[in-house]
Design a protein that fits this description.
This protein is mainly alpha-helical. It has three helices and two strands; from the N terminus they run ααββα.
Length: 79
């Protein structure tokens, strides 16, 4: 369920549309705390690389949720 927004978020980051170092240092720091895992179906999700790590990824996760809402709104408006 989160795979599609995760992939879109990753694409936006790679394209330089998100996580510009000058815009949001806190989100950039959280991005450094994230790992991406995938399953055999190719679905991806973000996790902490080490579950015992106290570093935060909440901002990244919230951003991915926002991308998912944005995608749903686009689909609802177009069809």
């Amino acid at each position: 369920m989160m795979s599609t927004p995760c992939k879109e978020f990753e694409k936006l980051v790679v394209e330089g549309k998100l996580l510009n170092r000058d815009r949001n240092p806190l989100l950039n720091w959280q991005a450094e705390n994230v790992a991406i895992t995938s399953n055999s179906d190719g679905a991806i999700r973000v996790v902490k690389p080490d579950a015992t790590n106290k570093r935060k990824i909440d901002g990244i996760y919230a951003s991915i949720l926002a991308v998912g809402v944005w995608q749903k709104l686009q689909n609802d408006l177009s069809g």
